[in-house]
Design goal:
Blueprint lengths: L3 H11 L8 E3 L1 H7 L3 E4 L10 H11 L2 H6 L1 E3 L4 H12 L4 E5 L5 H9 L3 E4 L4 H15 L2 E2 L6 H17 L5 E5 L4 H13 L4 E7 L4 H8 L26 H8 L2 E5 L1 H13 L11 H7 L10 E4 L7 H8 L3 E3 L2 E2 L1
Parallel strand pairs: 2-10, 3-4, 3-6, 4-5, 7-8, 7-10, 8-9
Antiparallel strand pairs: 1-2, 11-12
Helix pairs in contact: 1-3, 1-8, 3-5, 3-8, 8-9, 9-11, 12-13
The structure holds pyridoxal-5'-phosphate.
Length: 328
């Protein structure tokens, strides 16, 4: 398991490469909840999500020789962006494999961040096969989005910063998918504040970590379109790090409907003046839907990312939509 030392080491490694984001008070949510609510503005992280922390830590942990070979992943989303940026920043090179179905704007965004993009096949599985071929034949180093000790330790630096900015924090709300963010933040927060609760938040349908925790081991779940698209995908049937850590350290996992996530995005925009993607808004969504049972004292929420399609964002904040591709 990842310890406080690993996370402190990660911080000294990545400082200067990432932004130590502010934790700001939300008067509106503090009023609603009756306790102080602090927002960890991780959507201001370079590349628009916290994923740069883990990606940077993982690349900096590689040997010179490994960095020279280059890194590879199959993410079309925030991990792909983060890995591309982090690799370029240290003079390495990322190769991001994508299927032909990935929209052109996502392809060009990753290219703009300096990655080699390989378009291959018609599915994420085809793209993953290409990743494995590049590892086996060309010696590239695969860096996954969450299930890797250096990735978890990098994301855990958010937990250190939360406790420093809010020493009396009693509850930390963290978006949850593969669990790299939640495992890292929980490891840091529980080491420094053993009595604080750390709660994972995710969407109702296709919540792989929640289903796996309930089943007592990693399980496959069906995927559905969600406003929280960054929370989709499985945790890996051969999960090595994040499942065990989430099982040991998370106090609860709370599920949110599409309508509740949409309300979170709307509140963020109208009351906090922040643009969030669905995954980044689940903490706010849980508070305004009154889904966190007991709030004993100061609460911190991780606003994890802002990479939302702006047409969809406009429809949501105008009250024209509460879900992906479906008008209300
Ligand atoms: C990846 C991601 C998450 C979930 O992180 P995991 O480590 O996979 O649990 C949450 N929010 C955003 C914006 C993300 O990009």
């Amino acid at each position: 398991m990842i310890g406080l030392n690993d996370i402190q080491d990660a911080r000294s490694r990545i400082v200067g490469h990432i932004i130590s984001t502010p934790l700001v008070c939300s008067p509106a949510l503090s009023d609603i909840c009756g306790v102080a609510v602090g927002l960890k503005l991780e959507h201001y992280q370079t590349t628009g999500s916290f994923k740069l922390r883990g990606a940077t830590n993982a690349i900096l942990e590689l040997s010179e020789a490994e960095r020279a070979r280059g890194v590879v992943a199959a993410s079309t989303g925030n991990h792909g962006r983060a890995l591309s940026h982090a690799a370029r920043a240290v003079g390495s090179r990322a190769t991001i494999c994508m299927s032909r179905l990935v929209p052109e704007n996502k392809v060009s965004e990753v290219r703009r961040l300096g990655a080699d993009v390989r378009i291959i096949g018609n599915s994420q599985d085809d793209a993953q096969e290409e990743v494995e071929r590049l590892v086996a034949e060309n010696g590239l180093v695969m860096l996954p989005a969450f299930d890797h000790p250096a990735i978890v330790a990098g994301q855990g630096t958010i937990g250190l910063e939360i406790v420093e900015a809010m020493p009396d924090v009693t509850t930390v709300l963290v978006p949850l998918s593969g669990g790299g963010l939640a495992a890292g933040v929980a490891a840091a927060v529980k080491a420094l504040r053993p009595n604080a609760k750390v709660i994972g938040l995710t969407m109702e349908r296709g919540a792989a970590m929640k289903a796996s925790l309930d089943a007592g081991g990693p399980v496959l779940v069906e995927e559905f379109p969600s406003l929280a698209d960054s929370l989709g995908g499985g945790i890996g049937l051969d999960n090595k790090v994040t499942f065990a850590t989430c099982r040991a350290l998370l106090d609860d996992v709370v599920l949110l409907s599409e309508r509740e996530i949409a309300a979170g995005i709307r509140h963020a925009y109208a009351r906090e003046r922040e643009i969030l993607e669905g995954a980044g808004a689940v903490g706010i969504a849980a508070l305004i839907a009154n889904k966190i049972a007991v709030l004993r004292g100061p609460v911190a929420l991780v606003l994890s990312g802002r990479n939302i399609d702006m047409d969809m964002h406009r429809r949501i904040v105008n009250g024209m939509s509460n879900s992906v591709g479906q008008e209300t």
